[in-house]
Input
Amino acid sequence: MARTALVTGGSRGIGAAISKTLKAEGYTVAATYAGNDEAAAAFTEETGIKTYKWNVGDYEDSKAGIAKVEADLGGIDVVVANAGITRDAPFHKMTPEQWQQVIDTNLTGVFNTVHPIWPGMRERGFGRVIVISSINGQKGQFGQVNYAATKAGDLGIVKSLALEGAAKGITANAICPGYIATEMVMAVPEKVRDMIIGQIPTGRLGEPEEIARCVAFLASDDSAFINGSTISANGAQFVV
Ligand code: CAA
Output
């Protein structure tokens, strides 16, 4: 029987590429989105992938949404915690609201997404937890104290989940994309973006599909011994 995968923020950007790649690999895929009904409807129309709307920053909302996905599609075998936002500002201008919004979505959102799915994975003796972190959680970034804190925190989550899930057939791994050609990166002022591209030895932005293929590998049976790891996919911009 086809395995079921849930991709948060799965109808746009890197998430859309992940949803499509997992579908092409034979998974039954559910993609969540936060607000843009039109974009989600167009995505479903184009791909046949079901979309579900909830706020990953809200635990009860996430729990109810996941229960609906599992009622529709069966127990979730693969969860890709991808939903993320930026609220960039230099620290001296960053507001408590900008801090909190990013923490709620990018860090607490991972807890809210994985926690309701985890008991079912333990019961079934199989699970793949894949968290989309960031190069900026590894190295820090001017203007991203909030975002970098969440993405570094995400690495702590997967390392700890790996230890807890290993005996139950569950792996937890992170991918740290570098700068990928998505709306999020295109929103960076052009001058700053050009400067950043100049720091990528590969000489270009990454493509969303290059991250999606890493996810497909981590979701597969072939990756069973990879647990608690971080895969960097950044064109050698930051080498750890
Ligand atoms: N390094 C060093 N100095 C920088 C800098 C940088 N990366 N960016 C800006 N500065 C400097 C400016 O040159 C400026 O210097 P002066 O005061 O001497 O002129 C100073 O910092 C302040 O600049 P601004 O007044 O223009 O600051 P601002 O309030 O407009 O905000 C910013 C600037 C929002 C941080 C803007 O620089 C920015 O958006 N930077 C990009 C941050 C970034 O990389 N975000 C990644 C988004 S994509 C993503 O997050 C996905 C992922 O995982 C990779």
